[in-house]
């Protein structure tokens, strides 16, 4: 049984991707019917953890989101979305990132902290503290963003330190506000760029796109801290 090896979230995400692919095959008359659409899936203990196809963006929607934010929002807005979409980390983990968490030579990011309504603190569990392999393109952007952040700090009479938060407010150069990610996603929705989803949808999207590309679960479950 999959539920003996993977979390409920993983099983439901895999099912969502496969269900969508098979449904498309039925629509194109490649298959006669979708035999997995009515499978009884394991349930979450809490409804707030439930994941549906509406919580996942496709590649086209992700591209639209990134392009719009890059062209119409600030450097920090784009960096936030790029981080979430490229790594599957939680928004709280992204907001708590500091420059010394990024290992540019080895192309990894260390997740050590999170940030929520209780403030900044260590991650929820031992599994939450982890390292994530990141792409060369993401690191290339982070290098450019670091220069931008250093310039903003300098304008405000400060110097960028390795212990500084990565995601900063362009005006104050302090850490971004806690509701910053949600407000950004809502603003993008209101512009008609994508459907209404929360920043957490990018985490599910990251997993679903990897599954769709045939990348084995074992290769990406650690980066998402999936048991």
From TrEMBL:
CDD domains: INT_ICEBs1_C_like. Residues 52-227 form the Tyr recombinase domain. Coiled coil: none annotated. One of its GO terms (biological process) is DNA recombination. Keywords: DNA recombination, DNA-binding. It comes from the Bacteria. SUPFAM superfamilies: DNA breaking-rejoining enzymes (SSF56349). Belongs to the 'phage' integrase family. This is Tyr recombinase domain-containing protein. It comes from Ureibacillus sinduriensis BLB-1 = JCM 15800.
């Amino acid at each position: 049984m999959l539920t003996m090896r993977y979390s409920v979230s993983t099983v439901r995400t895999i099912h969502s991707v496969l269900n969508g692919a098979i449904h498309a095959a039925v629509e194109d008359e490649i298959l006669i019917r979708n035999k997995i659409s009515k499978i009884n899936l394991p349930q979450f203990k809490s409804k707030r953890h439930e994941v549906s196809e509406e919580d996942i963006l496709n590649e086209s929607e992700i591209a639209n989101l990134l392009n719009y934010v890059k062209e119409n929002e600030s450097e920090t807005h784009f960096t936030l979305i790029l981080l979430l979409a490229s790594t599957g980390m939680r928004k709280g983990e992204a907001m708590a990132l500091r420059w010394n968490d990024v290992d540019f030579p080895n192309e990894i990011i260390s997740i050590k902290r999170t940030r929520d309504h209780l403030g900044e603190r260590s991650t929820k569990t031992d599994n939450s503290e982890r390292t994530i392999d990141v792409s060369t393109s993401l690191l290339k952007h982070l290098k450019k963003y670091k220069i931008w952040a250093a310039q903003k700090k300098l304008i405000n009479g400060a110097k960028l330190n390795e212990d500084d938060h990565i995601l900063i407010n362009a005006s104050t150069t302090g850490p971004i506000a806690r509701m910053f990610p949600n407000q950004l996603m809502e603003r993008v929705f209101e512009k008609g760029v994508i459907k209404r989803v929360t920043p957490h949808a990018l985490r599910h999207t990251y997993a679903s796109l990897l599954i769709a590309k045939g990348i084995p679960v074992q290769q990406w479950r650690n980066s998402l801290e999936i048991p």
